[in-house]
């Protein structure tokens, strides 16, 4: 049975599940749930449901299971791969978690926090900060993304190097399954080796196996000191060598090691013309150490940099002498991302390779753009310490957007080919969603595909959960 | 079809899969594969197969799948929960990975290593050390356990606090599935957010979903300095408070925080009568910091301890002034484990609770022993920073072993009840195997059980992989 429109009976059943104020089915009411943060996708849906409790999420899934109605779980809608928006979603309902937005518990003795899935990341970070704790997940979208979406997409960000991806920070999940049953995977334990670690399945599954309604995370002591440096280097090779030395010489205190190609600075200046790179060099690195008390962190970083300059790895280095100056370094990193959005449509990638292959990735990708799309402008930046490079490409300003988008698809295909050729991934942190599904799926071995399909079928036999995201619709699988 | 004995046809098929030297079916040849390290279990098997290549493992699984013959994958056989030994395994074959024992690759630029599943952990650690790298997994059994078994059981150990469990250290796996297909999950990438993270399923699955044939792990820079202290404290409450302060004051440099009840010292002296605790206090802590260069680690630890003494958290503290002295502290921690084995049968647990509940766990457990088994001697030690306590209990020496074992089952049941009552786990790191299966399974919610069974069926529909381990035999599931 496929639902093509909401009959009065179905509307009444939905109202029974989420109450009269818990859903909207008119275009105006649905608009904000059907457009993404970056303006790249427009979705469709039969209705947007906004359950106000875990019980209501269960009622929604029981109803959808009965009707055979597909569901798109949605958090803050800040994803970049059309994971929570479906342009062909005319027969699906969006289930927004935004009304489940409470912090349930902060336990500073155990360094754990439990929150509803719809809790905004920044709210969680602020609550931890107020108790001298750190929840280290840090993303550009943290003011609007939700912790449930962070879990479902295994979010990354600038602190991965020190603290890991969302997967590494999650201790437990609470999930409503496709049949409406509730799985309580909370325990608050640091170590629990009791059979299959079921939460791992849902982390990064992009809503295709169930709806995450609650998340339990690890907290850390808030660092009491931070040292930030902005460095100029001659090449990406030098940057990778520098990182490897830093790993050895700075213990486990590196909290950021971001590579920025000098061509990115202009983009940041679109956001704030006052922005200027404190060094002049083709490759720039924003490096940050942080720690508790009792360590002379300034001397540690200063000596490291002096040694790196002496060895010729770094050509220029500015060690921030105030938090204002450190903020100005970060403004470059943040501004260059916003600047791309300001400039309009552009090719966005999220590639990862073995760390030692980063220079090859960048060199091959630049070569490809220079040869095949010479009027396009490549930008290189990323979390180099994780092997994760955002190699983005700006179309020439004079190219009309629809032409640029058509051409952009070729650019992306070429860049993916280069990453895959180096044994890399086309999705280091953004996920697969709908926009990368085909490249992802065709790149898998038959055995891998068979396992993915078997897991999907095991947990969502009717194919109701986020159909079309990550893997082809279930009917294709059998 | 159930295989009850090895017919000439089956023997010949096995020989076809692994060669004439690749299996043994006589009692003498099988003996070493059917007894565990701790001497707690005796197993049975139709035969022990020793494939010499990944292709041979595939051939074995194809054959077993055809015959409907159940398989027990086996690494170094150092597990403590009868996961690789089956006392009712008369109709099963053991597949030992011991001949797949090569290190395939060490990449010191990417800090990664790939090895065959049968590679002994100590061999891997030594190879890393020789290249100034650290593979931090550290277990008492490291001289004989194998990396594939470490992955399958999600091994823990003394370095979990700083570096995580095996799960946190694994970047990729290579697995032969129940149908003989090979899944290559190697990539060497730090970040790869591309759909379901399939390796997570096999980690900690105790051989019930496939045979791990290769493991890729993260390496770390070898610390260049280590500071070790042995502390005396008045109570377990003080130890937990001390740990929480240490987390804040010692950055992320704590590499061990082991709690030792003073009653354990006597056990260590069974191994070496020269062993003596450097402090006299009811609760003792072995604390270790480690780091790269450029940090005054000695001053960091010394100031931390001075402050803790001033605040009355620590009553006595000895900071090792030489590596010999540091080794003597570790000899206590290692000796107390060996001493228990030397003394004979004892109740062994591996409980975890929220860190703040450790004092309650210990107090309730001691109360239970004092009241219900007054002549038994409780021992408390463990990785307190992870919430993981080994609350073990020694029977009175005069009690005959078979009586002690019978009584021991009651002791274990009582201790599990206390841990579960505190929201804890009956298996922090040792796993479930066969010995804890019933308590584990009956403690799960119906929804959790249903999910476990669905995953098992999805990947091992014939129920061939380690039958009876972790979950009831598949026929019970449906």
From TrEMBL, chains A, B:
Residues 41-222 form the FAD-binding PCMH-type domain. InterPro entries: FAD-bd_oxidored_4_C, FAD-bd_PCMH, FAD-bd_PCMH-like_sf, FAD-bd_PCMH_sub1, FAD-bd_PCMH_sub2, FAD-linked_Oxase-like_C, FAD-oxidored/transferase_4, Oxid_FAD_bind_N. PROSITE patterns: FAD_PCMH (PS51387). Keywords: FAD, Flavoprotein. Transmembrane segments: none annotated. Belongs to the FAD-binding oxidoreductase/transferase type 4 family. This is FAD-binding oxidoreductase. It comes from Mesorhizobium humile.
């Amino acid at each position: 049975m496929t639902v093509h429109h909401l009959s009065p009976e179905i509307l009444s059943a939905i109202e029974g599940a989420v109450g009269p104020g818990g859903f909207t089915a008119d275009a105006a009411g649905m608009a904000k749930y059907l457009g993404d943060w970056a303006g790249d996708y427009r979705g469709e849906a039969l209705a947007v449901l906004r359950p106000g409790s875990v019980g209501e999420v269960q009622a929604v899934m029981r109803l959808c299971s009965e009707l055979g109605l597909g569901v798109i779980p949605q958090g803050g809608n800040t994803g970049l791969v059309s994971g929570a928006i479906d342009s062909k979603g005319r027969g699906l309902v969006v289930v927004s978690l935004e009304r489940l937005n409470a912090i349930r518990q902060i336990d500073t003795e155990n360094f754990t926090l439990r929150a509803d899935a719809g809790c905004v990341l920044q709210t969680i970070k602020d609550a931890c900060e107020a108790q001298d704790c750190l929840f280290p997940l840090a993303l550009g979208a943290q003011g609007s993304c939700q912790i449930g979406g962070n879990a479902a997409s295994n979010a990354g960000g600038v602190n991965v190097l020190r603290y890991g991806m969302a997967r590494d920070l999650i201790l437990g999940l609470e999930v409503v399954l496709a049949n409406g049953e509730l799985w309580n995977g909370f325990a608050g334990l640091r170590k629990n080796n009791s059979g299959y670690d079921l939460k791992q399945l849902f982390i990064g599954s992009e809503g295709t196996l169930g709806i995450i309604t609650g998340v339990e995370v690890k907290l850390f002591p808030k660092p009491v000191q931070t040292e930030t440096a902005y460095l100029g280097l001659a090449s990406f090779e030098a940057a990778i060598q520098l990182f490897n030395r830093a790993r050895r010489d700075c213990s486990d205190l590196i909290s950021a090691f971001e590579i920025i190609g000098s061509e990115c600075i202009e983009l940041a200046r679109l956001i704030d013309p006052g922005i200027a790179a404190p060094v002049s060099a083709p490759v720039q690195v924003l490096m940050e150490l942080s720690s508790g008390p009792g360590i002379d962190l300034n001397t540690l970083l200063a000596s490291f940099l002096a040694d790196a300059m002496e060895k010729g790895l770094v050509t220029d280095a500015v060690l921030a002498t105030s938090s204002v100056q450190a903020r100005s370094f970060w403004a470059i990193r943040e501004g260059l991302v916003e600047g791309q959005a300001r400039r309009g449509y552009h090719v966005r990638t999220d590639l990862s390779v073995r760390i030692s292959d980063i220079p090859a990735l960048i060199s091959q990708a630049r070569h490809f753009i220079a040869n095949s799309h010479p009027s396009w402008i490549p930008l290189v930046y990323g979390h180099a310490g994780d092997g994760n490079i955002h190699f983005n490409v700006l179309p020439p300003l004079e190219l009309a957007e629809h032409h640029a988008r058509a051409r952009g698809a070729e650019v992306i295909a070429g860049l993916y080919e280069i990453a895959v050729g180096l044994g890399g991934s086309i999705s280091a942190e953004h996920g697969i969603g709908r926009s990368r599904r085909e490249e992802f799926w065709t790149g898998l071995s038959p055995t891998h595909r068979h396992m993915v399909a078997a897991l999907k079928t095991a947990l969502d036999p009717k194919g109701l959960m986020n159909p079309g995201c990550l893997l082809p619709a279930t009917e294709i699988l059998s």
